[in-house]
Every structure is written in C-alpha cells, then in structure tokens.
Amino acid sequence: MRRAALLLVTILPTAVVFAVLTARNATPSAAATTPGPLVERGREVFLTACTSCHGSRGQGTDQGPTLVGVGAAAADFQLSTGRMPLANPNAVPVRKQPAFGADQIRALVAYVASLGPGTPIPDVDPAAGELSRGGELFRSNCAACHSASGVGGALSLGADAPSLRSATATQVGEAMRTGPGQMPVFGPDTLSKHQVDELDKFTCMVRDRLKEAPPSLSNAPTPFLDWASHSNL
Predict the structure, then answer these.
(1) ∠ at Cα 52 (48, 56), nearest 5°?
(2) DSSP H or E stretch at residue 8
(3) What pLDDT digit, counting tens, does each position of 56-107 carry?
(4) Measuring CA to CA, which residue among 126, 159, 120, 147 is closest to residue 221?
(5) DSSP for 155-205?
C-alpha cells in the first residue's frame, strides 16, 4: 500500500505537467485553423460568385481550375485586372474593369490564399531600382512579347501579350512571379527581388509614357519609340 502511494506521488505531478503542456501546445494549433473575419468575408463572396467554375471549396470543376495552392499573388492579379471572373469559361481573360470593389478583392484574395500555400503578393519598390538596369532586363526578358515599347503584341494560338498601359507596379510584380496565361514564371531563382524592382521602375516609366503618347502612337511600337526618343525616354 505504501509503495502504491509513493508511486502516485511520483506520477501525478508528471501527469499534471504533461496535461498543461499539451493544452498549451494545442491552443495555437486550434486558433491557426480558425479563419479570420477577412477570410470569412472572402468565402461568402466566393460562394456567391466563383463556385460555378471553381467549386464550393476551390477544388476546381470541368469549367475552371483548382485554386488550391495558387496563392494570393495570382488571385490578386486576376481579380484586380478584371480578368476574373469570366462570363464565359472558354473565353480568353483580358484586362477590363474589375467586377469587385477593392474590399471584396482583398477578402477574396485572403480566402484563396487560405486554401493552400502559394505565391504571396510581392512587395515591390520601384524607387529602389535603377532605371537603366531595368531597361536592360526588360529588353532581355519582356520585349519579345510585350514589344520594346510595352504596347503588347501577338502571341501564338491567337493569344496576345497585353499592353502595360494600365498595369500597376504590384500587378507587374505579380505577373512576373505567377506567369499568367502564356507568360513564363520568373521566380526568385530567375529574377531577384531587386531585379523585379528594377523591372518595375522601367515598366512604370513605360506606362507613364504610354499614357502621355498621342492616341495615334500609343498602340504603334515603332512610331511610339520615335516619339518617346524625343521625349527624354
């Protein structure tokens, strides 16, 4: 009897400590699985506007791909440029007025990001880039499709590389990191963050010049370059 009492005295403190530690470790895990209010708002919008193509849990359907693991960058690019949602799932996504407001887009992006690990929205800083170096990177990596002047151009299979006229710095960074459509992915192993900043600085300058160009030149690569060369490009 005495040995049993001693055994209980030895075991009980250890059991109490183990239970406390287990409870402490379980709390963050449970909290991590609870969606925040922004994700919940995004889920509500998603269920009303996106499920016919992407499924009720973003798993995809025969009308649209899975969104699990695509990440915040791809979702924000597609939504903020108006490429998604598509009225016709077989149509080629093109830039248009966004279907959702800024708050709804933030919520939808948060929800899509919660579906699985993916590429985050890049933190771009064009001011940190060097313009001349950005021009070199653009000519090496982007001009073949978007043209040297950034007005876009025709690709294979009837697709087009879009003009940079309306692209924001963040959207350019998102496109580089996620490779929408036929565009290749320029990951950190291909272009560093600083190189993305340099490219962004150059494309911001190109975008501003496109907006300044006369309408007759803004969609014509060669005349635009002639005009720009006399405008301190």
Answers:
(1) 70
(2) helix 2-32
(3) 999 999 999 999 999 999 999 999 999 999 989 888 899 999 999 999 999 9
(4) 147
(5) -GGG-EEPPSTT--HHHHHHHHHH--TTPPP--TTTS-HHHHHHHHHHHHH
Tokens at 15, concatenated = 């059991």
As to burial, measured by CB atoms within 10 angstroms (0-12 exposed, 13-18 middle, 19+ buried), residue 206 is buried
3-state secondary structure labels for all residues of 39-76: HHHHHHHHHHHCHHHHCCCCCCECCECCCCCCHHHHHH
Q: Residue 65 phi/psi, 5° resolution?
A: -75, 165
Structure tokens at 59: 């798993």
CB of 105 closer than 8 Å to CB of 79: yes
How many Cβ atoms from other residues are within 10 Å of residue 47's Cβ? 12
Asked if 218 contacts 224 with a C-beta cutoff of 8 angstroms, the reply is yes
Q: Alpha-carbon distance 31 to 29, whole Å? A: 5
Instruction: Please indicate, yes or no, whether the overall pTM of this predicted structure exceeds 0.70.
Output: yes
